Amino acid sequence: MNDKQRPLEHCHFCGDATGRAGIADDSIYLGTIGPFCENCYGETGYYALEQRVEMVEEVLDVERLAAIEHTQWMAWARIVMDEEPGLSPERRERWQSMMIPFENLPDEIKEYDREWARIVIGKPEHWGTHD
After folding, report:
1. Does 115 map to a domain?
2. pTM for the full model?
3. Is 107 inside any structural domain?
4. Strand ranges, E, within the chain
5. pLDDT of residue 11
6. Distance between CA atoms of 68 and 18, rounded to whole angstroms?
7. What residues contact 114, with CB distance under 8 A and at least 6 apart?
8. HSE of 102, CA atoms in CB hemisphere, 13 A
9. What confidence score (pLDDT) does residue 124 get?
10. CA distance 63 to 108
11. Domain span including residue 73
């Protein structure tokens, strides 16, 4: 299929035609996000993508997501504590001490849940940090 047979692609940001047909070798993408027209790509780049992620982080509220992450962790930890005979007494004791509402956790423990919340949001510097 040549360029004349493929539908014209449109910019991810502005919606204008990119001047390219379909996903071509010269299509402009930032990772898997795109395509972009020349104008928007020049204005966006990675820095603007990072700014958009920061705006999403503010809207979604890291603290709210961290509280959800903590609730999920507690459910998982209870299952592991009930079903894993090899779990050390020290770990059981440490986990048991964290089986409290998120808002009552010490800040250094809350930060673990905030890290996971930032991963859920997709903050680039946190991608791949927790395998």
Report:
1. yes
2. 0.51
3. yes
4. 8-10, 17-21
5. 78
6. 40
7. 62, 63, 66
8. 18
9. 55
10. 13
11. 61-126
